[in-house]
């Protein structure tokens, strides 16, 4: 995402500088987006009005602590990690150096062409209202959603952690199957699920590992998932009435989602899009 944000700000006429431990990749990105390449984090932070940190989750706090003392007073220090517990704490400490902290989580990937229809979550560090207003000015066109750190991280344990875990397990099973044969005989559900699983497998392994490891809430939901899988396996030995009871319970719960009754239509639209 660092390259995406570098392109975003550079394309809007802001002088942009980047740095990265992967020197060759950084040179390619700098050349592609019209940014200046700096040799160190401190050199890139320098006199910048905005410093945006996009590094692996375990490294965010370290980089925040590294650059904050060298930034000018009043500059914005932002980060874009997917897990916020330790990063928000680091930003609060950094505020003592006179920087304006901003913790955001873009709910889109680097393939996004614009901010139209995209959501950026703001996790309050010092002043949630002021930080949300800052995000609105920086990222015009995006929907800004404010979420407290605990709420955000617990949600991400499901939205990111559980879904990645499920799809990796699915992909692991498929890795031992004849996928071409399966696709030849597949309908809507498998086709859509396969596309999601393959997209997950195409992601950066280190990022996915961090999503699963760094969020302390993830293990709770993985335990729930494995317990649910075992329950379903046990239901297979019972009669149809057991599944009818399960479906009745699930429909009552999921039916509270306003989009529930459009689920089959949306699944088929996704299938048709994949067939284009």
TrEMBL record:
GO molecular function: NAD+ binding; prephenate dehydrogenase (NAD+) activity; prephenate dehydrogenase (NADP+) activity
Database matches in PROSITE patterns: PDH_ADH (PS51176)
Any Gene Ontology biological process: tyrosine biosynthetic process
Organism: miscellaneous Crenarchaeota group-15 archaeon DG-45
Protein name: Prephenate/arogenate dehydrogenase domain-containing protein
Location of the Prephenate/arogenate dehydrogenase domain: 1-268
Classification via InterPro entries: 6-PGluconate_DH-like_C_sf, NAD(P)-bd_dom_sf, PDH_C, PDH_N, Preph/Arog_dehydrog, Prephen_DH
Domain of life, source organism: Archaea
Sorted UniProt keywords: Oxidoreductase
A Pfam family this chain is assigned to: PDH_N
